Amino acid sequence: EDVALSNRYFPDNFKFGAATASYQIEGAWDEDGKGEQLWDWYTHTYPDKIRNENNGDIACDSYHKWREDIELLKELGVNHYRLSLSWSRILPNGTVYNINQNGVNYYTKILETLRANNIEPLVTLYHWDLPVVFHEMGGWLNPKIADYFADFARLSFQLFGRYVKTWITINEPQTTCVQGYGTGGKAPGYVHSGDGVYQCAYTNILAHAKAYHIYDEEFRATQNGRVSIVLDSAWAEPGSSELEDEEAARTAMAFSMGLYANPIYNGNWPQVVIDRVGNRSLNEGLPRSRLPQLTPEEIEYIKDTSDFFCLNTYGTYYAQYQNGVNESIGDPNYYSDIGIHTYSDPEWEAVIDWVSLVPWGFRSLLNFVWTEYDGVEEIVVTENGWADVETILEDTQRINYVSQYLSALLDAYYEDGVNVTGYTVWSLLDNFEWTNGYTQKLGIVHVDFDDEERRRTPKSSYSWYKRVLANRCLVEECVRE
Ligand SMILES: CCCCCCCCCCCCC/C=C/[C@@H](O)[C@@H](N)CO[C@@H]1O[C@H](CO)[C@H](O)[C@H](O)[C@H]1O
Q: What is the ipTM of this complex?
């Protein structure tokens, strides 16, 4: 079915990019002095938790093939490349006591080459590969980790600030906290849904704020860069226009995005989260809320620690009021705290459940971020893309998805006045998709994981994206305003 796409040009200052993350592409897991990190440990200790017992030991072998990756980016014509630093490649034991010069050299070469090719690096300091020593100390359940992260951030600003003007502290704390420490679906696989999610959220936002303040106080004046955190959320659409369903959708957004965005942009946790977790904790007979209380000093310290909003999003779901759940006791659990019913429309095109072709949901989400969070003057989409579960070189579904999401983005910009200034496709390469191993393919470039050379083959979406970047327009002919 033909869908009408926006015929507006992308604004002159709009930036296009592609994204990857260290553990998902680099490989060389123990090479040249790199230390062990959480996902090395997890995939080696619990191979059965990963599809086909795969791991990222070699992944796309980008540790050796990074020049080829930059060639692909150059040819594509992107304005920026979002990549992440492997903390334990730079600091094998996690702390600044021991710096691995090979790791520093690796990233220096990449950043230099990107700059030489006029590609702006968007650098994420932490994309889930926690040095294993910190996992042994409790990982993100231990607030002390925030200090170690801050040390790593300072060192990275010192080492790479020449090249990097856009820093992202942490990727998707929601995924880390809900899946890593709540449901156990990702490393470290902990199931502490009632408490762990909130403790992890606390440590993540504290770590982010520390890194932000370090940049602000020690580097901003000389380096002139900016700092943000990547937050992810699907869009929660009310299941009906009934007030109860609208409230259910707002509650879902508060628990998914608000838990992290509210303290950073508006100050403190969302009120609905404070109330629901607090009341349920009392009903459960607990002496205090399972949600850590932020002190007035912490609220002030964490608030306003972002220079622009980084958004990752892949899909939409409906939220519906669920009768009786709010009163139920005896189930200290993040999802019971939210207490709503969610569902998808079976008509929505989707190959995996959380990536769905719902461009209007994306537009609503952009509008939500724009109006809900104080002081947001700019939004950059730092991840969005389509998942296949088999190798498809003529990936028309991906082209459909990305073109319709970009069209929705243009509508949000031109029709709704949302200042969204960048879009980053996930991903440049098919890569190691965490517990899904190599079974989910989100790259615009195919990587042959059966080939020792990890041969890269651009898919149709790569050529299509290249044309969009060159024309700055989604259709045959665009109009100027
Ligand atoms: C509070 C909400 C209540 C109920 C929720 C109902 C269910 C709706 C579906 C929500 C989404 C499920 C979880 C999805 C999270 C994604 O945003 C996240 N995993 C994306 O992470 C990035 O994914 C990339 C592609 O897989 C890539 O792996 C990258 O590294 C990640 O940053």
A: 0.96
